[in-house]
Amino acid sequence: MILFETLNQPYILVWLIFSGFLCGLFFDFAQTITFLCNNNKVVKIVFDAFATLSSFFVLFFVNLNLNYGQFRVYVVFVFLLFLFLERISVGKLIAKTNSWCYNLFKKFTNYITKEKNIWKTKKAKRNSK
User: DSSP of 61-104, one letter per residue?
Assistant: First the structure.
């Protein structure tokens, strides 16, 4: 690692881009959990706080490791920019995929319970004869 920060800036930017996308995935995970819990307010608050705190710690430790703890404007700007870009690009794709899988699972379970009820009524009719 180079001691002078100006020669390290491309390396720092790559890690900030990566960590911004990673923290966007934290927020996607929190959104998925709250979706599975029927948008419960308490679960939403807890997982949003978890995602926010973990994002802060990732930014802090990446900055501490690469930039010797000096917070500069571009560090926060690049991190937040790529966090936002992940949320509007990959985050939307993840949300749609989660919704599609959830709806498919619900249709499958409804079909199974419907078939189970049909077999119960057929069995009851046979036993009553």
Answer: HHHHHHHTT---HHHHHHHHHHHHHHHHTHHHHHHHHHHHHHHH
3-state secondary structure of 112: helix
Vertex 37 angle, CA 35 and 39, to 5°:
55
The stretch 109-128 carries a mean pLDDT of: 75
Does 79 reside within a domain? Answer: yes
Q: What's the domain range around 49? A: 7-88
| H or E segment and range at residue 119 | helix 90-128
Domain-embedded: residue 78: yes
pLDDT given for residue 19 in this prediction: 94
Per DSSP, the chain holds a count of helices (H) and strands (E) of: 4, 0
State the total domains in the chain: 1
pTM: 0.76
Q: What angle do CA 88, 90, 94 make, to 5 degrees?
A: 110
In the DSSP assignment, the letter for residue 38 is: T
Domain membership of residue 64 (yes or no) is yes
Joined tokens for residue 7: 């020669």
